[in-house]
Design a protein that fits this description.
Layout: H1 2-15, H2 19-24, H3 30-54, H4 57-83, H5 85-101, H6 107-120, H7 178-181, H8 190-200, H9 202-244
Helix pairs in contact: 1-3, 3-4, 4-5, 4-9
Length: 249
Amino acid sequence: VISMVMVAVGVYARLLKHAEAAMACLAVDPAILLVVVGVLIFLITFCGCIGSLRENICLLQTFSTCLTVVFLLQLAAGVLGFVFSDKARGKVSEIINGAIVHYRDDLDLQNLIDFGQREFSCCGGVSYKDWSQNMYFNCTAANPSRERCSVPFSCCLRAADEVVINTMCGQGMQAMNYLEASEFIYTNGCIDKLVNWIHSNLFLLGGIALGLAIPQLVGILLSQILVNQIKDQIKLQLYNQQHRADPWY
């Protein structure tokens, strides 16, 4: 049910977008991610549910195999991310830069970036000047945009008594140096902030990973137990049929 809701929300979000904008940022579209994850969860849980109800060995083995693959992929991603932290950091930087380029093309992506910058008190990937990669915020003299040399309002320092958000507070910030800009916006990039947050919350992330792994391992174990029970029942039925056919039985 949860997976069907995820797919429905993702499809609805995609249908609301303009075709040109949707195709431009397909790789960083949260709606697409929602649909893909929802479909995968539905297929896996469908195999497990129907396989257990109908006592279908094929579906149960598919369910167990899929859970095993997902668990191994999660384990491999964690190990590789720890061992090859520099490459993982580069991949994260690439994703963030791609999101910056398509910031104005997708409202969902825009809201996601604004939320991240506000929560982590950061701006851009490495620094606030990364926003020059966006065609609207580009700081070159040839850029005709009214937002030239600006940054999104989510980069701005907010006063404690601020009631109405000033969406133009990032105007011209890229033209300032770090010291000048730091009085008005967050100048540190989100990559360093994200890395620091991960290092500060390793126990929390470990608990979440364990919380995800335990149900998967339990599902694998229970599905294999059920498969073995079904096979035993099949052997017992075959044994009884053979002995009923025996005239000396």
